[in-house]
Specification:
Length: 326
Amino acid sequence: MSWYRRAVWFAKGLREYTSLFRSGYESASKRFGPADVEVDVAGKSFLVTGANSGIGKATAKGIAKRGGTVHMVCRNKERAEEAKAEIMTETGNQSIFLHILDISNPKEIWKFAEKFKNEHKLNVLINNAGCMVNQRELTEDGLEKNFATNTLGTYILTTALLPLLEKEADPRVITVSSGGMLVQKLNISDLQSANGTFDGTMVYAQNKRQQVVLTEQWAKAHRNIHFSVMHPGWADTPAVRSSMPDFYQKMKNTLRTEAQGADTVVWLAVSSEATKLPSGLFFQDRQPVATHLPLARTYSPPEDEEKLMQVLEEFSQKFKSTSSGT
């Protein structure tokens, strides 16, 4: 790569990076159409994972303010109850339901999905739950924790609920990813990070690249559902504070608020403008953006993307067959 191309790549990459902070949101918001999200979604049902804090709670609150029925899917019952009470008090919306589920547990996801399908309708699924575990840790099923939560859990919950979504008009699936995925090329040879030195930040970024690929593949396979994936920017959330403490201390005064981070999720969930754009795109600040940095070698061949889907489906069916009650 010539020095000029390197300079162009660096400049564009820096611009992408700086746009993720609060100033980037404030600049982008000047072009937002306020009417896009001034909508009443009463009668519509939204499921939000990881809804007890951060982007998930801000998303649930934004939908509740617009009259939607919100199903909060959370791991910690005590924190979830507190978040539910806060959302109901602030919005006056009583149609807030709580479900306790660990997204890293594939058998429990299957059981939850089967029960949910029998009891509720669903218009919009928002995959927000995620984790960044900085030391390699295995779940009770022997799965690497980040992969189990961010990738496999997202895959199983989404595919299990597709039949329910397909029954409704204007169904949508939104997955909260991260701009960190821009530094990662899809790697299907080591999905559970068993080889080499374990770097939690890079594992997380790889999972987020996988979520982008999942969204693109789902969009091709399920034409009557609108799929999207997005980056909330760098927001001041409990997850950022706990998973990236050094980054947080250095950048805390420049981070977005939780509501700013959730803005595009809410827009994708409720706005009619969002579904005028093609399914399968990656969004930031209400606009589709590139999934690869200029000149970056992060593109993967189609066969790798198909292999990812195949491996996840094999995992999914294995855990479906071993979960009781399905």
